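Fold this sequence, please.
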Amino acid sequence: MTFEQLGLSADILRAVAEQGYSAPTPIQAQAIPVVLEGRDILAGAQTGTGKTAGFTLPLLHRLAETRHEGGRTVRALILTPTRELAAQVGESVATYGRHLDLRSAVIFGGVKINPQIQQLRRGVDILIATPGRLLDHVSQGTLDLSRVEILVLDEADRMLDMGFIHDIRKVLAQLPARRQNLLFSATFSGEIRALAEGLLDAPVSIEVARRNTAAESVAQRVYRVDRGRKAELLAWLIGSRDWRQVLVFTRTKHGANRLAKYLDKAGLSAAAIHGNKSQGARTRALAGFKKGDIRVLVATDIAARGLDIDQLPHVVNFELPNVAEDYVHRIGRTGRAGREGEALSLVCVDEDRLLRDIEKVLGRRLPAEVLEGYEPDPAIRPEPIQNGRGQRAKGRCGGRAHRAGRSDGKRSSGRPLGTGADKSARSRPAVRDAQGDVDGNTLFTDNGNRDPVMLASGDIKVRRKGGKPAGQSGRRSRRGGAVG
């Protein structure tokens, strides 16, 4: 099948051809005709299979077919969980719609809101946004969503994981009842299906691969190594094998910073990217990595989805993720669009349970080996990893004691923040600076969100009036009581 057979307009086909594409991926071949018919969709596919173009191309076609009188208003809304994914989708919309008379805009937190307000005032047909900043504009009266014709929830499972369900419901309340709904997700959890039941109208269900599977083009391997020698082994692998572009995942923001500094001192140009970095720093690091100025990009799971790097050859799990499904999204950054890629995991004795969970999700054992000179010491006993309960844990695989706290936006019970168990947390407003950013160590990647500041210990950080940090009485436990 070719794109010409899908019924897309000549201007869109021209843009697709300019990008060098001639044949659609399976998710595109199945989704595009259904979207063109105006039907709702519940679509799932593993990362790197072209989901973005699967909704972008037909969305552009439908909007270009008709124009509304009275100036430009937002006719299509695309919600994404992270800034990076919003930027990626925005690039796709701009690229494939370059020959159409349609305007698009991308809005997210972490940057000044005034330029976004000015852009919205000039008129926008397609809006790509993160939930928190979108609701900022709604509350300030700078955005009207009453004429939205098409709603897209991209990476919907990640939005639920990150506690955005309440923001999503607030957004839905701003939309007209009659609209087309497209829900795209890398995985189909029970929560996703429940959301789909309340959102979609007689949807067409599309799933082009078994749930939570990794792309076959990605070669996966495990290297067994002691927790204290992981950084040394990683530096050796990159240097001895002359890897020029490597994406490395850690569990924590501080761990990402430490590892990037270690690699930099070892002569390997490296940068860290995570939720505590400013948007400018994140954008510069990603741009440098894509250009080749930065050899190693060290990231937390903020980058597990939304990073689209052409022909990225290597992904390394410096630490295994706490949530097994996140492994699939991490390694999905390589082996995209059918290209080959390599995903390596450095596994210490502490992570045996996490490895078993990942293999259960994949439905197979991962090949494991020990490299000469890096043999694990059998005398080293496993130590606890982060357990998300605010206890002091000795067993981070870097070997240092730290405050245990989850960086994936979940409670230790597996329930996402923002559910009924966290009403006390939701009731306190977030602290923002002049740019609308949430102050402090937020767990969420959209710093324009409405969630309170969550410390690594699991405590909620609030501030007194005037913006100065509160003392002991200002720190709240998750149950809502003052600590101490």
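Residues 387-484 have pLDDT under 50 and may be disordered. The chain has 15 helices and 19 strands.
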